[in-house]
């Protein structure tokens, strides 16, 4: 029997927000989080009882984040200053700011592979399904991302939380 959807949001909300934050940045992460759970709510009744809910939500969050990136590219509006509206739920703390900034400099596939594997703990096979490509490619992207972070930002990795 499936858990009530409210319990799913409580249990995985912070993880989804962290993933959205690392993929999009703080400003758009809350929108992606909301869109993820709206889509998940609609699809939840059809989800099999033995499904990996966390991986399912990360997949939806990935797609919603990509949608926001595409929308941002289409609807770019020049402004002098963007507001910063961080949410305290699941957002990396100030101690993680250096790590967050370092991860944001990685190419998209590396950034996603690092976030999904080291922040969420997904296996490479599931990451490959989310971002496309093979399990080996997902492992390589994460490995290359971590190698880049260790080389360019050694202090960020020692201060940040990664598994």
From TrEMBL:
Record keyword Transcription present: yes
Top-rank lineage group of the source organism: Bacteria
UniProt xrefs under Pfam families: Sigma70_r2, Sigma70_r4_2
GO biological process per UniProt: DNA-templated transcription initiation
Family: Belongs to the sigma-70 factor family. ECF subfamily.
PANTHER family in alphabetical order: RNA POLYMERASE ECF-TYPE SIGMA FACTO, RNA POLYMERASE SIGMA FACTOR
Keyword Calcium: no
Molecular functions per Gene Ontology: DNA binding; sigma factor activity
RNA polymerase sigma-70 region domain boundaries: 9-74
Keywords: DNA-binding, Sigma factor, Transcription, Transcription regulation
Protein name: RNA polymerase sigma factor
